Structure prediction request, 341 residues.
Amino acid sequence: MTGRIFVTRRIRDAGLDLLTEAGVELQVWPGAEEACPSRAEVLEGVRWADVVLSVLTESIDREVMETNPRLRGVANFAVGFDNIDVPVATELGIPVSNTPGVLTDTTADLTWALLLSAARNVAVGDSYMRGGHYKAWGPNMLLGEDVSPGGDGRQKVLGILGFGRIGQAVARRALGFDMRVFAYDPFAREAIEADEQAEWADLDELLRESDFVSVHTLLSDDTRHLIGERELSLMKPTAYLINAARGPIIDEAALVRALRDKTIAGAGLDVYEREPAMAEGLAELDNAILLPHLGSATRGTRNLMATKAATNALAMLKGERAPNCLNPEVYDGEAYRKRTG
Ligand code: GLV
Prediction:
């Protein structure tokens, strides 16, 4: 197959091999694992390419897409796509795809790792050991909160914000901890009401009643700062907030204040408002467990994401419908015909 694909970060070989075997011209940004291409390098790569395989660290906005009138598609290596201006892509006739389905369980598992670690001081305990503080077992040492009915016999409430694939997978895992599950998602009310485990709750009720609140919505103008000072003040002082979705859904400065003032008991975060930066003061708080966006970070899942993104990119290059296209209406539009014609 002829054509050029620019890959903005080195993804797993499972995906790159598919592209190489298809015979396309490939340009993989050559920088280090912990670095991202500069804006100029992204623009240069996009100008060279027919299709871009992007990663969530690269902003694919109007300027980037308008830089190449031949661009036939953007295949994102992520289920989230807030790094791409999809309405602009649609206006310009550029198909955009993501990698849904393959990272659901992996991200749900990581959410639970955060929840359990926050409730039971796993990270604090680890630092305690490494810091040489463990001199003798203590009856009051590093006490956390139960997740199962456990100590106080009370069934705990898990509140899920966003009842899509990942939210539902997180809910399923709560069965093993004998929890009651509340869910809020204005786009999935029927799914929640039909679900055997979850019960519909409106946002304020969910925040008031939950022992653990876990965020699983997409990032959009509707969900930016969905959790701010008012919402945090509704939560119980013994409750924990978990976020393995997108940072800007939570007002991070307000969260730092809430954690510092003990408005809530703790937080488990995998994502940040201005990632990779953290809000001032967050890193000093020992009632927050902080991970570097590891939600989908297993070898198996990253292989699947790589092959899915590569498959979408190849379909775009061939002028076929990408299997995970987010804006399929582009295929019927004049703008797409012009740029691919
Ligand atoms: C990761 O954050 C993803 O959206 O896949």
